Amino acid sequence: MTDQEGAAALVLLASPIRRKIVEVIRAAHRTRSASLGDSALGADGLSAAQIAKSVGLHVTTTRFHLDQLVAAGVLTTATHKHPGAGRPRKLFAIAVHPTSAADDVAATRLLTGLLTEAFSATRAEHRVLSPDEAGYRWAQTHVPVTGAPPARTIGEWVGRVGGLIDVLERWGYSADIATTDSGRTARIELPNCPFRELATLHTDVVCGIHRGLIAGTMHQLGEPDTDVELIPFAEGSTCLARVHRTTPFPTDHEMTAPSPSQENSDD
Asked: Cα(100)–Cα(111) distance, rounded to whole angstroms?
């Protein structure tokens, strides 16, 4: 899947009415009964008419949204033959359980805002932003610039990573952090991704956005020389981010040595 195709699928789920349609089908799966009457959910899903009634839309409009969700791989369809007379009905069901607005409303709003900004930039610049660029630009817009120089010690570096953790918490993550590589690499575990089901469908897009978000945030915090690696579902439901400072910390001698300007002032 290309970045453009994946981004288009994300936009579908950014629509409140399409998220509502998905939630109606999901709720019906949870509460379905053994009865297969017109008011109950069949074994294979819900009809367009049933969904239209639940979301308060005309059935023709509902079918349009359903077709878009099927094309994006969010929903699947099956033909159900009702017992007795009558023609078979086309039923819609969840494909791979896409993201739910109820799972994390704040995170969904952030993602929706990011997508809106990214597509506005796409129209203005007449080119399609990559997911990494979209995440990076969000950080540039929403994470204040500290104006601080790059960290000179491991402690300062970990403090900058702490600022990144604060941003990730805004996105719905509860992160655990450890350092390796003499302190220059932060290993960040991200359990229970709020976009897990959507990331399963479009890993390159969702993870690209978060990779750019991490890199952009570190740049805003004064660490432009940072490499970011993001490993989705590295340990079950836990994703892993490795944030590596590409330049070494200055030695004690370099930190205490006078700068050229100081040496000239002593002459």
From this structure: 12
In the structure encoding, which two tokens stand for residue 209, read together?
């956005």
Cα 7 to Cα 21: distance, rounded to the nearest angstrom: 20
DSSP E strand boundaries for the chain: 46-47, 75-80, 89-94, 176-180, 185-191, 226-235, 238-245
- Work out the average pLDDT over 36-60: 74
Report residue 260 as tokens: 């050229």
Residues 6+ apart with CB under 8 A from 252: none
CA count, 13 A, side-chain hemisphere, 74? 27
Q: What pTM, to 2 d.p., does this model score? A: 0.56
CB 19 within 8 A of CB 11: no
What is the per-residue pLDDT across 216-242, written as a single tens digit (0 to 9) for each? Answer: 999 999 999 999 999 988 877 788 999
The dihedrals phi and psi of 127, each to the nearest 5 degrees, come to -155, 160
Contact at 8 Å (CB) between 47 and 62? no
How far CA 77 is from CA of 38, 81, 95, 139, 194, in Å, comes to 18, 13, 9, 39, 26
The overall longest dimension of the chain from CA atoms, in Å, is 103
Q: 51 with 42: CB under 8 angstroms?
A: no
Amino acid at 262: Q
